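Interim report, section 4.2 (structural modelling).
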Amino acid sequence: MEKKGILLVISGFSGAGKGTLVKKLMETYDEYALSVSMTTRAPREGEQEGVHYFFTDRERFEKTIAEDGLIEYAQYCGNYYGTPRAYVESQLARGSNVILEIEMQGALQIKQKIPEALLLFVTPPSAAELERRLVGRGTETPEVIAKRLARAYEESEGMDAYDYIVVNDVLEECVEEVHRLVDAARCEPIRRTEFIKEITEELKGFAKGAE
Amino acid sequence: MEKKGILLVISGFSGAGKGTLVKKLMETYDEYALSVSMTTRAPREGEQEGVHYFFTDRERFEKTIAEDGLIEYAQYCGNYYGTPRAYVESQLARGSNVILEIEMQGALQIKQKIPEALLLFVTPPSAAELERRLVGRGTETPEVIAKRLARAYEESEGMDAYDYIVVNDVLEECVEEVHRLVDAARCEPIRRTEFIKEITEELKGFAKGAE
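Predicted structure of the assembly:
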């Protein structure tokens, strides 16, 4: 069977616990790697090249875009951010599942370019719980919380474009579920193309031999 | 979350070990039920009504077709065979996963009518292994084996219409894999429609409240 890793695109409501989930998943299993973004923004104190970001300038970033070297990119506050194809592909080739934590529009962009990417949408068990978590952080004003809930409503309309909806209730269970889903996804025909091709060819040989 | 069972449609090459797999799955887990077909053929020695088949006559069978009471049906040797909708739906409603072991064309018919049905295709690890198993049975002539392999080649072209490809190498592992796939399938948006609807409505309420 194919040994290649799976490109795991994780989105979800702000407050759904994606960051903690990804962290715990990486701590629990060896076979996951986090995608490292490329950016034109200046490094901040303590940020390391190749760990937090690949730092570059506008000229080289735009050259990379032109060469189709990014699987998705966007601009924020005058800086480019993108996902370098080469890094993702080398990790996948070594058999690591590469995690990309990214918002909905970027996720759907990736699905179009890379149909075998696995898209997970992380959600709390209910909207009331989402609100509780956002309020519980104690770091955001009621206005910001209201904005995030309004944004969550918009995103809820796009959830069904994802491969799986993951309910993050108990963190440890959710980590196990995500890991099982990645395993299950390996059985989808789109990720068994090599196997299907091989057995079809082999059967064709038998069928011809029998004629 | 939804408690409804999943309609599990199992196809696969002749010789892939579907029958043994289904038997073992039912023995290992309580939550599976086997679909019982309706037929116009006469009961054979030892066959029980409602266990092996629902026996009926042509007139009632055709009435059931007309009332859309079958999720699929076909004729073989002048007799009707079909899957009664009512039985499947009552089992699903009680939370059982209903297993339907059926060939490819019937399976694809069902997927069209019931998009949330889960289609599994069972295959040995290779065509050589398939041949070994068919020969190993010692019950079929070389001509029959050649026909089955030719049929397998035809079917291999349709494998990618299935939700998952299950490689049946070691039986016990395969049973576990099927069970995990059914679990994973519960996270697909098509089987989380209730949840998506509820959280969308709830978020809409929050979004409106914030306006």
